[in-house]
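Expect sequence, tokenised fold; for instance:
***
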Amino acid sequence: MEDENYMKNKTGSVTVIFLSGFQEFHNLRIFLFLIFLVIFCVTVCGNLLIILVVSSSRSLHSPMYFFLTQLSFSDILLSTTIVPNMLHIVLYEGSSLSLIGCLTQFYFFSASGMLETLILTVMSYDRYQAICHPLHYTSVMDLTFCLRSILLSWLIILAVILVISVTMSYLWFCEPNIIDHFFCDRDPILELSCSNTSILKAESMFIMVPLAICPFTVIIVSYIYIISTIMKIPSTTGRQKTFSTCSSHRPIVSIYYGSTITIYLFPNTVNANKILSLLYTVVTPLLNPIIYSFSNGDITQAFINLLSKMSTTFLGGWQLPELTVRYK
């Protein structure tokens, strides 16, 4: 009997995954394609611009902006992993991926998403040191610490996601081979498996939950200390100016963790999950450079200076009018 079931599963095994995407929005597919295409272009260009501006400006060579460039790189990786295939899905009402291709997309999506979590955590620690321990900031947040924290984050994430992806590759997948989503996430993939996935789910919980909870805890604790320190500042202007140094970090953390916590801890309908998934796979990488550019005067000023240098180089000495970003 076991041999018979095995042969049945074997003959029904799948090597191709079909992503159905947004078929419920059939009449809007051209509009959605154009919207996602514009978002993708702005996301990649905006994050590349952040990296270019920070790299070219000596005034931005500090830990906070170094971590910002790593966040931009993570956003580019996340966006290029998801959006190009999503554009194909929207335009042609679905897309086929090989099983290996689907697992590869899961690997890079998970790695870039978890990397962003760790980078946001290190950035919150950077703000904690800058506000709560300003006298020791330069000695703690030195170049060695920054490089080690990013390198360690990469190594941990790549190793952890590799273990999960390799384990998933040993599962047996049966018909139907349709995933009602626009990318290959863990749970939709496991729903296609006719193998026992309890071990993999336990393994994922054992590995991934600490990687999700510990960074979130560090961020919350950091902001508790930050708010406590700011409240001790006697002047209202001083409190507002100090708290404004976290103005770019807060909304990004709120959007990213708000959407991921909702979708993974409180699963809802498929359509709701798709919309929430769009928040942290498409919208968040778009908002990161926008929020950091408009709410950070140093980056805006560095960008203006970069444009001025480029105009001097390429426009035969003609310069842009001198502009200065001023704080109220």
